[in-house]
Amino acid sequence: MTSRGAAAASPAPRELRAALWIVAAVLVVSIIGGGLWAMLAPTEKVFVVEPGSGMALTGESAHRFDAVAIFACVGLVTGLLSAAAVWRRRVMRGPIMLVSLLIGSLAGAWVMSWFGEQVARWIHPRSHNPPVHTVVELAPTVEGWTALLLQPLVAGLVVLLLSALSTSEDLGSGRGETAEPAPRTPLSEVTYGPYHRPGSYQNADSQR
Length: 208
Fold this sequence. Notes:
The chain has 6 helices and 3 strands. The protein is mainly alpha-helical. Helix 2 packs antiparallel against helix 3, helix 2 packs parallel to helix 4 and helix 4 packs antiparallel against helix 5.
């Protein structure tokens, strides 16, 4: 096997670097989204009835759903923007781009929830042992793992939709143009049954 064939059989270092770049970029955007969620998500006010125990005020328990809904919206926008940004890099289009985008989006959703909760606790601090008959604010949290699936789901759907709308076989990446054409057989080497040598037609006429 030639060196060119070995290079084609193994993934190009450029594609691997591009995949790592995609994952890192999605993680950075997800961290920013986590901080934005921490500032937008509402807190839950609880009335302390006894040490270590509290009761949610009227209507405050609904803020748990509000926090998850806001997180889902931030994840949706993050998945949409990250997929659109990666698709604009034509040289990255392909299966490696899709897999790295899905991995980065799934990991980014978890990082967004973890970082967002940390920032929310920093923005809304509370004492560990609040006095009885006082109202405290609980920092928002992301309850449930299903909210983490929205960001990679949206990113994957956007890439699949853009791939379906593409009219180019290589998705416009330009890799198909670099492929070497198949070697052509010279006309002098083409055989047609018994008439495979130059002058065979003349020999056949002379024998009749």
